[in-house]
From TrEMBL:
Membrane-topology annotation of the record: Peripheral membrane protein
Alphabetical list of NCBIfam families matching this protein: FtsE (TIGR02673)
Name the record gives this protein: Cell division ATP-binding protein FtsE
Major subcellular location class: membrane
Domain of life of the native organism: Bacteria
Subcellular location per the Swiss-Prot or TrEMBL entry: Cell inner membrane; Cell membrane
GO molecular function ontology, one term from the record: ATP hydrolysis activity
Domain ABC transporter: 2-223
InterPro entries per record: AAA+_ATPase (IPR003593), ABC_transporter-like_ATP-bd (IPR003439), ABC_transporter-like_CS (IPR017871), ABC_transpr_LolD-like (IPR015854), Cell_div_FtsE (IPR005286), MacB-like_ATP-bd (IPR017911), P-loop_NTPase (IPR027417)
Organism: Rhizomicrobium palustre
GO cellular component: a single term: plasma membrane
Keywords: ATP-binding, Cell cycle, Cell division, Cell membrane, Membrane, Nucleotide-binding, Transport
């Protein structure tokens, strides 16, 4: 599903942020990406979601080599990925409901088909009473939950989330991880970057850790 071979990344003439990063995410896997602040977690997620190209190395996504894939093919690859970035990237003038519904609208689904799914998801992330609110009137944690609901609503092939529990109470954080686990059970490959040791320790999942720009495999799932 995702393959990195000797990937390196630097911003401009700066130091190398990622060095010789090699790993595979198998289809249907659930993985945590950990590492100290500044270790390069967000950078790695940006490379997977085709936001930035790597400085060197090979990235294969859904069987396509990103270096040789035609530019016109990239939007279709991106649409197979649900992404939760730390800055949420919500559409300012759309309500929480309409932000979450956006991937379904883009996929050509009709409101009558998806309205109840979107509502159910917003209730699950604790926003049942904020569906009509626009992002500017939501707290950071509420905006993050809208971004999470939007990333999962279309059941993407791959979900990548950057600190998805960073701004929420532990109870909501646990619900979000359950939501990701359920999505994973339905077939989505999941990669979560996090500082939160609690969620890493309680989930039975693989952990990849970035140390000085290099990737270390810490743990495989228990049988
Ligand atoms: N657009 C950019 N231009 C220049 N340097 C950058 C850019 N984005 C990130 N960096 C640098 O790359 C390094 C890794 O940053 P990155 O955001 O990937 O780390 P992180 O592990 O996600 O950190 P955090 O846990 O604090 O979010 C840092 O030294 C950062 O300053």
């Amino acid at each position: 599903m995702v393959r990195f071979e000797n990937v390196g990344m630097r911003y401009g003439a700066g130091p190398e942020v990622l060095r010789d990063v090699t790993f595979v995410l198998e289809a249907g896997s659930f993985t945590f990406l950990t590492g100290l602040s500044g270790a390069g977690k967000t950078t790695l997620l940006k490379l997977i979601s085709v936001v930035e190209p790597p400085s060197r190395g090979l990235i294969t996504l859904f069987g396509h080599d990103l270096a040789t894939a035609k530019r016109g093919a990239l939007p279709a690859l991106r649409r197979r990925i649900g992404v939760v970035f730390q800055d949420f990237r919500l559409i300012d003038h759309l309500s929480a409901f309409d932000n979450v519904a956006l991937p379904l609208r883009i996929a050509g689904r009709k409101p009558a088909e998806y309205a109840s799914d979107v509502e159910e998801l917003l209730v699950w992330v604790g926003l049942g009473d904020r569906m009509k609110a626009i992002p500017a009137t939501l707290s950071g944690g509420e905006q993050q939950r809208v971004a999470i609901a939007r990333a999962v609503v279309a059941k993407p092939d791959l979900l990548i989330a950057d600190e998805p529990t960073g701004n929420v109470d532990p109870e909501i954080g646990a619900r979000i991880i359950r939501l990701f686990a359920e999505l994973n059970r339905l077939g989505t490959t999941v990669l979560i970057a996090t500082h939160d040791r609690n969620i890493v320790e309680t989930a039975r999942a693989r952990e990849l850790r970035l140390v000085d720009g290099r990737l270390v495999e810490l743990r495989m799932p228990r049988p």
